[in-house]
User: Fold this.
Amino acid sequence: MLPNRAFRLLLIAAILFVSTSANTVAPNKGLYPSLKGVNASRAGVCTLEVPTIDLISPEDRASGVRPEGNGTRPGFSKIDICCSGWARKPHTHFECEPVCDNGCPNGNCTAPNVCSCRRGYVKDVLGNCIPTCPIGCLNGVCTTGGICSCNAGFQSSPDGKFCTPVCTGGCGPGGECVGAESCRCRTGFSLSRNTNKCEYHCEGGCGGGTCIGPNKCSCKPGFKMVQNSCVAECPRGCKNGRCTGPGVCSCESGWTLDKTGTICEPHCRDPCLNAECTAPNTCTCKKGYVVDPTNPQSNRCVAHCPGGCENGSCTAPNFCICNPGFVKEAKGSNRCVRRLKRSPLMHFELIPEQIEN
Assistant:
């Protein structure tokens, strides 16, 4: 039997050999597994009984040395190994540490395949330790140190704790940026399609002016304020038309601008005979004339004789010309009578009116 001191040295060498040859992970799967439980004073350390002969050198084994061993069975000795899921610490072979198969980023492996996240990290649904931000990270992703990495269209606050929306060029004095390139305007302001900023709003617009405040217009030269809007002025007038610009008179369809540029006159496609064009394509007969009864749809007006022109024709207002063979009955009369044949026994006196006709 070997001295006690020599036997202890052999046991220590055997422990180192077994732990090293087993690559330090789950070495209790040896040829002679006989675990006796975890050593309470050293977490992850288990006891394994192996044949004592396996713990001596080949030379001693060849010489016939047979140590008794300290196991519970003859010819067996107890050695300390790391339990399943544990491995020897790299800098001390007398302690074991838990092993997490997938590692433990941002955390500590506190038991076999059990990660405990470090401060500032929490576990996600997959069991990975991810950074956490105390107030969340809306519109971004929480990164190491509780700093938000913001999505496109957002920027990090100065302290990196939250993401704020970005509106290129700002939203103007009357708005605030509430989303990526999205402005919200306050009362009295509206979003401009051209600038995408909140600008002063004047209900109904300013016409020929500029909105300089909520519902407040400033008129340009040549315009005047009419019912909170700036309308063009035509100092020389614009009868029957519309002033569309400073000193500019515009006519509606069916009207034409006269030579002075200040009056819109009605236009009749066909000329008005004995009548005036009083509206687009509308003729109004002059005094003493009426619409031609033979063609009411025409623009022609004919003379009117209230009492008619018996045996004659009305050629002018209230004026008749007698047909051949007829003469006026009396001066100032529109009645025509048959001319009498001349007889030596009769004396005729021509009426001045008949002479003129």
